[in-house]
From TrEMBL, chains A, B:
It catalyses: (2R,3S)-3-isopropylmalate + NAD(+) = 4-methyl-2-oxopentanoate + CO2 + NADH. Homodimer. It is an enzyme of class 1 (oxidoreductase). This is 3-isopropylmalate dehydrogenase. It comes from Marchantia polymorpha subsp. ruderalis. The lineage of its organism: Eukaryota, Viridiplantae, Streptophyta, Embryophyta, Marchantiophyta.
Amino acid sequence: ERSYKVTLLPGDGIGPEIMRVAVDVMQAVGRREGITFDFTEKLVGGAALDALGVPLPDDTLASCLESNAVLLAAIGGYKWDSNPPHLKPETGLLGLRAGLGVFANLRPAVVLPQLVDASTLKREVAEGVDIMVVRELIGGIYFGKPRGFDVNETGDRFAFNTMVYSTPEIDRIARVAFETARKRQGRLCSVDKANVLQVSQLWRERVTAIGKEEYPDVELSHMYVDNAAMQLVRNPKQFDTIVTGNLFGDILSDISSMLSGSIGMLPSSSMSESGPGLFEPIHGSAPDIAGTDKANPLAQVLSAAMMLRYGLGEVKAAEIIESAVSSTLDKGYRTGDLMSAGKTLVGCTQMGEILLDAL
Amino acid sequence: ERSYKVTLLPGDGIGPEIMRVAVDVMQAVGRREGITFDFTEKLVGGAALDALGVPLPDDTLASCLESNAVLLAAIGGYKWDSNPPHLKPETGLLGLRAGLGVFANLRPAVVLPQLVDASTLKREVAEGVDIMVVRELIGGIYFGKPRGFDVNETGDRFAFNTMVYSTPEIDRIARVAFETARKRQGRLCSVDKANVLQVSQLWRERVTAIGKEEYPDVELSHMYVDNAAMQLVRNPKQFDTIVTGNLFGDILSDISSMLSGSIGMLPSSSMSESGPGLFEPIHGSAPDIAGTDKANPLAQVLSAAMMLRYGLGEVKAAEIIESAVSSTLDKGYRTGDLMSAGKTLVGCTQMGEILLDAL
Ligand SMILES: CC(C)[C@H](C(=O)O)[C@@H](O)C(=O)O
Ligand SMILES: CC(C)[C@H](C(=O)O)[C@@H](O)C(=O)O
């Protein structure tokens, strides 16, 4: 009997509803596979702000660090939108990422055959898209210093941020990306803005060097971020694995996931050098539909599967969950976000029950 | 008889071919409308590097500054890709923008009814898209200081860039954007990353203030850049006018133009406080097809029309050119980039001749 400590962070909006489904599914699979989960639920984001006045309580981070893995749902909402920066839910998320040291964020964007019509792209463009975006998550302009506000010689206010990467930061994310590409189609596209930014010039130099020295078998290409954004719309199938910095990764992974037309289906993982990984859906907290039982829990369930596979090494349990999701889609069950003619509309709770039946 | 000094910058790749067509068209319209053009051709980008060793010769910038308007084709090519940064064609372009002070870059993305099938988006998503991206062009991380390379306490190399905006820089681009939105559907979406970046927080504060004080009639909304990139793919018709900083504008305007499926059709204008404007196609120098007579000259021709309309105030001449382009498309003539079944394939030169006939 294997046992794992997992910290659950339901967060805000639809977070608690979809987390409930994921927990039920994990427990069912655990019973079947002889896995015990020691779940601890903690507050983060808006929920933590409301209860404790901070977006990331010390106790939450401590629990995460003591766990084998962390499963997050979603954070944020209109309610805290006008809070000062240090009291925003997002600040809690950034603190959590930094606190866990999860520098490597993997965001898959797959167009599932059952859902190809949900894409706004033409069928022939969308069909077969399978991209993995490897995003550096705890560096770059998100955390770079100096940052802040000041007044210049002419008496005008100005604000500034620093985009910065060091060679060890670039090297370690490059290695994760090359390893990832090797397990996929063996093609890696590094995205930067080296025609304008010095930080991109160093990025390109290091990724090129790591590729040449350590991964000569992986086909490496480079693309400017504006062109990459465009190529994702023009011909997404040209991409296998993409590696890029924090800001460009934020933008490109959102485009990639939208291509699939089913952002409610996509999980993500964030890994550190040796500590627990952080697993979460790509979508947000959807405050507009929170509490209405309309949310799609599948990205959360697939994030749990990703946690089992990459965070806990429980590949079999992950596969069971993934095929339950697939067979549920095959049977035609859809939440509102993916609904189309001829399918059966279900709510969040019912989708959970159908998944449990399918297990 | 009106007379204008115009500096022509054919640049690299397909630049000279498409510029030739635009010049013929302008001259034909000029004869008809009693406009004389005093054209001066100058070197920029790779062409200037080859001839003079610098990407922006002083003489080129001086000629531009003495003109009523500047018409650029495209710069860059593989040939100069491994040059050091200060000897890259792009550095010439950035120097030209800064030297002319053209802070406001307007990039329209329109899905033409004749070309809706060229988009990779489904017809019902693409049809009717008409977006104007107003991009700040001479500030932000493109020009921010400090920038460069250094070594940190642990002996590791690092590189850094600064994203910076001051209130006057934000205010002047915001005003251009509000004015632009007012002449369109009256809706402006300001794009930033205010949940992470201080510079975006100041951006949002100032755009909001200018809107409230000076443009209460324009409907203002705000969107994070990752979401905006995603929404452009999900439902581009929700956008009328977008305003954003230099880096985000680079990315979003490329996505917008790709949505139209006809990047070979899209012009852009860049305006300063009071000096000559800079007009250029959105597409690049396409070195792979340079010299093969395959280039689409229409974006260059429409850039000339934009120059006539916004740079020289010759609205009638602009309209004549625009309707010649439209009727040429109606007649079914297409260059390779836009070719589809049932249309007539033509080269760059022949497209020019057909346009002259249509005038
Ligand atoms: C909420 C926000 C801070 C976050 C980010 O920008 O990283 C989100 O967009 C994401 O991609 O996870
Ligand atoms: C060539 C490059 C420097 C330029 C930019 O990034 O501004 C281009 O991408 C553009 O959008 O005009």
